[in-house]
Fold:
Amino acid sequence: MKKILVIEDEELVRNNILEILDTVDFRVIGACNGGMGVQLAEEHLPDLILCDVMMPELDGYGVLAALRNNPVTATIPFIFLTAKGDKTDIRQGMNLGADDYLTKPFRRKELLGAIEARLIKHDTLYQGYTREPSRAVAPVRDLRPERPDSLYYDQLTNLPNQLLVREQFDPLRDRTSQEGGWIAILCIGLDRFKRINQTLGHEFGDRLLMEVAQRLSQGVRRGDILARLHTDQFAIVLAWGSDKGDRRSVSALQDYSSRSTAKPLPEAIAQPILDRLTQPFCLENREIFITASIGISIYPQDGEDVDQLMKNAGVAMSYAKQLGGNQYQSYTPTLHSESLDDLTLETSLRYAVERQELQLYYQPIVGLEEGNIVGAEALVRWHHPQQGMIPPVKFIPLAEQTGLISAIGEWVLQTACNQTKSWQAEGLPPVRVAVNLSFRQFNQVDLSERLVRILDNSGLDPRYLELELTESILVQNVELTICKLKELKSMGVKISLDDFGTGYSSLSYLQQFPFDLLKIDRCFVQDINTNATNAALTHAIIQMAHSLNLKVIAEGVETSEELAVLYENKCDNIQGYLFSRPVKAEEFKQMLQEGKRLDFQPERVRHLTE
Structure:
């Protein structure tokens, strides 16, 4: 199989070329810059190289010069890709040793034809030399049937792709501007589509995307552009002219700029799209429900070019997803500022561990039988050098979205185990440390091996480590989860179910999973002394847990009255501000040294509950 290296800094163009070449059974390799391209060429010795001319740092000319000066890569056929048709540029490339050039945009047939010609010529010239002879290349007509302009169309849905949107936007903008018109871009993202692929498979997901494309096409008029941008993202470009006969004329958009109470036209179009997508899809005798999020940007107030408008529509769409999805949001500069802040924060977060900006705080867990500290929950905090203490509610979701939560979670585990062992080495009363596992962490294939390594490095006895899991993690794949939990328990660690009652809890789940502890969420504990419903639910949870031989920890205990009710209901442990806020390691150590206890008297507790 022929190997072709594509060196192109524009991701969309690179991916489209790779996709086309993959359909004709080439082995394809992609490089996003010139330096990487030279490295991959030397490592893989491809049969042909396609290389963009204009790239930052090392451009196409530099790549070609480097490869021609290396005897190993000197004879590899090299085709330039250029958006410029200037003869001087073409001559410069040929003088450096390029074999051919293609002017962007080019058609699929032109691309494959150029590749075929170069490979055949190379085989004729170099067959019998030190490089392995190549197989004969099938003529273009014998390859898989091509679709016209397939470089500009999505292979799955047959919709235009982002390249075609870019090409058609400038003429549309010029024409609309001359007419005094407007353009709106709607960026449509399917909510939680990844879960469908993971659960039902990519083939099913592809069929669903084709159905989605069909429904979207029913909501656009002739002259609008409907395109597929990425895996689960689509775009609609809507144009209004000044023609009075245009049902979406300029006057129809006056409400948008004047901020009147009438619904702006793009938003009036967005809601029917959402409604249409929420109708069930019937595929393979299965009924599937999906939702979408839509971001809206308007030319010219939200951007002068297509890239800026698409980016701003994407920012608005991301905000709609953050709000829970199944809604639309129009772009505002405030959203861009928040998005930029998140991007800056993400960059800082990537360095937070190695720069030792993360800290662990410990919130004591107290046993109600004697009032002693029996453990602590390890909670990560981020002290940013410029912004100060950043609350977990802001950076933990960002860490989960970017995948950084795995590295942070492993650091938390190692640090908590090291600290707990250190306290024991100093002769302090042994306590158990509880650490939350994220969804990504729990689903790591080598989680057990990582945990063994962490415990070995720290020297901590596994019985003093407690792993906290939320219900949403457990129910993704019940059978696999049970096997993994049993594997963890066989190591000697404790397993607790965190935030019980806020997700999918049922008695059947509690019976299946090998838990040791159950943590009652603070929403049930709050005002338990005055809220009869919370009191009844908490009482039932404690009784149910004890019947299954589970210990119970009540979170968020803040008042003596709440404590009294929990004590009367025979709750085993509590944690909350009534005893202590989360504190630094040194402060928690001092609590252990001083033997700090919960200050309560059973007689007084009974009085409070009467």
Q: What stands out?
A: Confidence is low (pLDDT under 50) at residues 128-149, 242-263, 606-610. The chain has three domains: 3-150, 162-339, 357-609. The CA atoms of residues 126 and 152 lie 35 Å apart.
